[in-house]
């Protein structure tokens, strides 16, 4: 019983095996990809392991505090930002092995020529609650 | 005001009656859940004289409503007439069978936990979902799949009490205290189990839970900071609960069938027994760790034993015991940091505390370990 974040990147992940950008796929290939993602989420709902999924717009704004009484400073987007998150899925599973298995399944989503993208996903454990019995 | 705990304590018995009348477990469980919801609504203005009888009637009606096929209904109604009213002994057996079924080895730990909380504990799917911070639909699915998994298991099949204890331990130890107090619920379910099965390890687990639960108020500060055992305000410990835990444990130990939960409870009892941290009987605690290792040898037990050795025989002895263990064990760095500080090596301790903070599995522990590193660095 542990929660994991499966993180997808627009940019910053190591190159995928089938690394052709989506704007160069056929309509059918895009449809097949979207369907795969939807089916994957449905399977997780069905297995009782789904927590959440979200997608993020690629363009964001950098914001910081600029001192008492002053408006926040904004900047960006920066083209040089290495890590650009595209979205995530949160799962609640029995083991780390199961989390790996699901991440691999998600990474197998079809891309160009209907072949798996082999996209690199980042798997991050959530902090849990401190256990009661420790000694 | 309805006593929700009393209401929920009737759940297993009512499911048992329905199953014996011919309902399959999954349908019986659903019907009893529906009846519980109705009870909360109706009892407020019209409390029944016989709560269990009321629930059986309501649940059976719900079950029949859910069963559409007329022929099947007629057959089941005949079965009702043929069935004598349940006696106390049957009720006890049913409750125990439900524990076995909900902790069946074919279930994953999270499914067994969810099913136990619903079918034995009488919690709603929403309450269980909130307690484990997952969407209600996800928890509903988990429970329904779990029911499907055990659908072919015969209700009267003997089960393994060890699997039940593991599930209850999980509920207690990994429970998040939100709307539903899972630690208290685990204690209630273990108490109920003690009442229906005579087994020293069941008593051992109950004692272990009580002895740890008794320290709950002192374990964290108001703002959620962890307080280690040695620094806890022992005046905040629940002495009545400790006394009960010790009594339960002594009765179990007298049976001379030691198991891991009794040994763990014995260690907790020795901590609870010390008026101050300095007066802790570490020599006896090390002996109990040796007993624990004899019944269940695990790296985590060896790690905790190294801490106890460090207290009993000095930090060097503790470090020596630690050196025999795998450095990748969870909390290894934290233990090493503690022993090195006790040994006077503040620099190594600070480095190890910082390392341990990075490997912590929860935020409270990470913050605690980071503070230890910061304390030694400044």
UniProtKB/TrEMBL annotation, chain A:
Gene3D superfamilies: Dimeric alpha+beta barrel (3.30.70.1060). Belongs to the YciI family. This is Uncharacterized conserved protein. Residues 24-108 form the YCII-related domain. Pfam families: YCII. It comes from the Bacteria.
TrEMBL record, chain B:
Residues 7-70 form the RNA polymerase sigma-70 region domain. Residues 162-252 form the DUF6596 domain. The keyword Glycoprotein does not apply. GO terms for molecular function: DNA binding; sigma factor activity. Keywords: Sigma factor, Transcription, Transcription regulation. InterPro entries: DUF6596, RNA_pol_sigma70_r2, RNA_pol_sigma70_r4_t2, RNA_pol_sigma_r2, RNA_pol_sigma_r3/r4-like, WH-like_DNA-bd_sf. It holds the Pfam family Sigma70_r2. Residues 99-149 form the RNA polymerase sigma factor 70 region 4 type domain. SUPFAM superfamilies: Sigma2 domain of RNA polymerase sigma factors (SSF88946), Sigma3 and sigma4 domains of RNA polymerase sigma factors (SSF88659). GO terms for biological process: DNA-templated transcription initiation. Belongs to the sigma-70 factor family. ECF subfamily. This is RNA polymerase sigma factor, sigma-70 family. The lineage of its organism: Bacteria, Bacillati, Actinomycetota, Actinomycetes, Pseudonocardiales.
């Amino acid at each position: 019983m542990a929660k994991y974040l499966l993180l997808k990147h627009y940019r910053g992940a190591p190159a995928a095996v089938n690394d052709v950008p989506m704007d160069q796929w056929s309509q059918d290939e895009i449809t097949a990809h979207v369907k795969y993602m939807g089916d994957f989420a449905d399977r997780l709902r069905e297995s009782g392991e789904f927590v959440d999924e979200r997608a993020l717009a690629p363009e964001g704004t950098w914001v910081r505090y600029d001192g008492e009484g002053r408006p926040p400073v904004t900047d960006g987007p920066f083209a040089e930002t290495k890590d650009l998150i595209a979205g995530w899925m949160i799962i609640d599973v029995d083991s780390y092995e199961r989390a790996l298995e699901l991440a691999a399944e998600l990474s197998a989503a079809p891309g160009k020529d209907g072949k798996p993208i082999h996209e690199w996903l980042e798997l991050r454990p959530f902090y849990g609650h401190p256990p009661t019995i420790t000694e | 005001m309805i006593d929700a705990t009393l209401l929920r304590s009737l759940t297993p018995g009512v499911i048992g009656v329905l199953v014996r009348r011919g309902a399959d477990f999954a349908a019986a469980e659903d019907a009893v859940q529906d009846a519980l919801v109705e009870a909360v609504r109706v009892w407020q203005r019209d409390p029944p004289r016989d709560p269990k009888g009321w629930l059986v009637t309501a649940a059976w009606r719900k079950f029949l409503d859910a069963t559409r096929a007329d022929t099947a209904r007629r057959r089941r109604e005949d079965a009702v007439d043929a069935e004598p009213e349940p006696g106390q002994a049957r009720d006890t057996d049913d409750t125990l069978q439900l524990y076995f079924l909900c902790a069946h080895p074919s279930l994953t730990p999270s499914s067994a936990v969810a099913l136990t909380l619903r079918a034995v504990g009488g919690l709603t799917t929403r309450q269980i979902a909130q307690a484990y911070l997952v969407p209600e639909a996800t928890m509903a699915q988990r429970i329904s799949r779990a029911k499907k998994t055990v659908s072919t298991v015969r209700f009267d099949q003997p089960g393994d009490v060890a699997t039940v204890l593991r599930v209850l331990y999980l509920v207690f130890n990994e429970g998040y205290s939100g709307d539903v107090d899972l630690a208290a619920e685990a204690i209630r379910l273990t108490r109920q189990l003690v009442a229906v099965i005579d087994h020293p390890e069941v008593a051992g687990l109950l004692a272990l839970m009580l002895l740890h639960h008794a320290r709950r108020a002192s374990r964290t500060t108001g703002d959620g900071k962890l307080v280690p055992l040695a620094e806890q305000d022992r005046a905040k410990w629940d002495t009545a609960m400790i006394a009960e835990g010790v009594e339960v444990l002594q009765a179990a130990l007298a049976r001379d069938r030691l198991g891991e939960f009794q040994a763990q409870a014995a260690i907790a009892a020795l901590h609870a027994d010390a008026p101050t941290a300095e007066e802790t009987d570490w020599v006896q605690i090390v002996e109990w760790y040796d007993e624990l290792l004899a019944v269940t040898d695990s790296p985590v037990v060896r790690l905790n034993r190294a801490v106890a050795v460090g207290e009993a025989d000095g930090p060097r002895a503790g470090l020596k015991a630690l050196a025999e263990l795998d450095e990748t064990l969870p909390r290894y760095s934290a233990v090493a940091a503690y022993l090195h500080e006790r040994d006077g090596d503040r620099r190594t301790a600070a480095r190890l505390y910082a390392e341990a903070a990075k490997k912590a599995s929860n935020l409270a522990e990470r913050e605690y370990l980071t503070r230890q590193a910061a304390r030694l660095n400044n």
